Every structure is written in structure tokens, then in C-alpha cells.
Records
---
Amino acid sequence: DQQVKQNSPSLSVQEGRISILNCDYTNSMFDYFLWYKKYPAEGPTFLISISSIKDKNEDGRFTVFLNKSAKHLSLHIVPSQPGDSAVYFCASHTEYGNKLVFGAGTILRVKS
Amino acid sequence: GAGVSQSPRYKVAKRGQDVALRCDPISGHVSLFWYQQALGQGPEFLTYFQNEAQLDKSGLPSDRFFAERPEGSVSTLKIQRTQQEDSAVYLCASRQIGASGRETQYFGPGTRLLVL
């Protein structure tokens, strides 16, 4: 029972263009959502988060959008850079939960 | 400041061997988590500590897996009688606060375990 789904295993984008990574969830109790970036042989690095009381959070080139009614969130990277090439994980937990539930990840390749 | 560190970074074990994986969380972080990441998958929760108390071990796959954090800082994940299906990356994460809430978990680099 996958509660967090990232249906696109990979995405390829030209440098300077927008990257859009998508994530769907099934648990309506999820309250907090995070995106992590992971390079090979390294641990996941926190990128950006959003709580369920918001529908958008922006940090520099990164923006996360949350659509609670659709149980969908997305990460927008503008402009994309070659250094953004990594695996991106969507994760979530409930308001009183501690453990993060992760999606399977999306491999982003930014071509120069 | 220093991040979460884990050792060893790589471990090769023969089937049936016991292994111990170490995690040093960020100094002062109250919460500590262990996750298991199989190839091509996202991390999956194993267990959670608040200080020295293990508050959730619902993700441990079998009684061969045991975790401890006796002094509320360093943690060890022990796997007894390793099996091939235990091959994975084991990630440790720490969080500053104790109670649940909208706080970020910071991950270490992981220990890649290969059981032959």
C-alpha cells in the first residue's frame, strides 16, 4: 500500500527550462510534505517543505505547490541547472506522526 | 556544524553474520530515525528514538533487527544472522525537537550493506 506515489521514474529537461516533479498521496491525514534531493552515494538532502495549511511555498528557484483536494503536490525548479540532476523524493507525515513516508523517487536529468 | 555521520559507509557480510551500523546524529538533536532503502525505492521507516527511548519500532522487519541509543546520542542498528534480503542502504536521520511537528529530518550518508 503505497501512500506516497511518484509516478514518473525519470524526467529529462534542458538547462534553463522548468522542471516539474509530481507526487500523489492517499492518506488524508498527511499534514506536512517535504522534498529531498539525493546524489549518488550520499544521503537525502532536505530541499523544501510545505504544511497542509498552505498551497504554495517558494525558496529561490524552488517552489512547491500543494493541492489538498486532489492529494497532489509538485515541485517546480526554475531555471533548471545541470547541478540539479539528482533523484528527488517526495515525503510526508501526519500531524502527530514522526516517521516520514517516502515516494519511490524521480530521477531528474538536466541537460546542458 | 557537523551533519549526521554514519559508519561504516560500506559493509559486506556473509549470510548468517551479525552486523552493527553506527549513527552519530547532529549534536543536540533529540530525535533519531533509522530508514532502510532498497535499490530503486524510497527510504522506508524502521524505528524512532526520542532521546534514549525507542518510541516506535513498527518498521523493523523482523526480530533479527535491533536498535539502541543508550545515552540519547549515538545509535546502533544491529542485524543478526543477516540474510540476502537485508542488502540495502541504511539511513539515519536526526531532528532537533522531540515532539512530532513540522520539523525537518536531516539524513546521514547511509551505510550500504551487501549480504553475500
---
Amino acid sequence: GESVGLHLPTLSVQEGDNSIINCAYSNSASDYFIWYKQESGKGPQFIIDIRSNMDKRQGQRVTVLLNKTVKHLSLQIAATQPGDSAVYFCAESAGNTPLVFGKGTRLSVIA
Amino acid sequence: DADVTQTPRNRITKTGKRIMLECSQTKGHDRMYWYRQDPGLGLRLIYYSFDVKDINKGEISDGYSVSRQAQAKFSLSLESAIPNQTALYFCATSTTVHNYGYTFGSGTRLTVV
């Protein structure tokens, strides 16, 4: 069946270092991928998205990489800050279907 | 005001009671969704609606029902609440095209005792 999962449930990084959060997906028909950030007590917030016709997309301090060959998605956060501490979710969609979410990775930034 | 508003924010109810969670949006989006979040399980889709006349079951629809009263309103009902429905519930909206994904509400924390 379809699944979106994460390699690491928790990640701790030093402030100022770069963070990499990984995600594996199994639906080869997925053509749209998103990363969300969820802070405590809040709903998920959009970070960055990428379509399957791209392999890299950059935003402000964030980069998403997509490797369709191995069905892998990653989120890179440059110069990680305390405000980046949150749970990060990847999500995928195939065509017109609703988003399927991964289980999440908790990022803790050590000051 | 928030783009997607969920009420109530917190609710404690007893087993067997019927409860309704409400969601309203000012985004003008056609599509609305209900997800459930449990620790370690991410967000799982309960029901979704692509327009007012469209209702679809998601991954975990058993024990739930929905009503799309208007483009801006999408409510989730638990007909007879049970303890394993204790969770954080999120409503979300999107346009017909997957641009910028979904806009989520702040969630409703439901506890069934």
C-alpha cells in the first residue's frame, strides 16, 4: 500500500549547524511533495513544496531534494536556529488525491 | 482572524456521546479535509470534500461522519464517541490545484473518557 515514512523520529542539532531531515515514500505515482513544520500547540505550516519534474528547490534557508529513483525526499535547513525546533512532516500526493503524511521527525536545536 | 477556524479548541466528552467538531474558512478554498493526529502516527485522513456536493471517505472514516454545509464550513461528527478517538483533530483547506499544499486550522484536542 501507499506509505510515507521517515528514517529518523528525532534529530538534535547544534545551533548554527545545518539540519537534514529525510523521508521515504513508496508510491511511485506521487507527483507532488510538501514539507510542513508543526510547532507545539499549532497546526502544521507549509515550508516548501516540490513537484516530481524537479529534483531540487530552494527557499529561504531551506532546500528540498527529491530523488525519484530511490523514492527519497529530504529537507535541508541551513544555519539551524532555536526557532526551527518543531516536528517536521513530509507529505505526498498523486494526481488529484489528498495528501498522505509521514509520521514526523522532531527537530531539537541545542543552543 | 484565522483563515481556518476550528471549534472547540478543547473538548472532553464521555463515551457514547455524540460530538461535533466544526471548521470554517475564509480562504475561499473549494477543498476541505479532516485529519486526525496521534503521537507517532502523523496525520491520517478521515474525510475530505472537494466541493459542497462532494464527500469522500479517507483512511480512517469508521466511527465518523461529516457534513459540508457550505463552501466555507465542514463539520466532523463522532456519532458515539469511544476512548480510542481521543486525539488531536485538524481541519485543512486547499485550492483545486496543489499550490502551497493545505492551510490548517489550530486543531481540536478531543478527549473521550
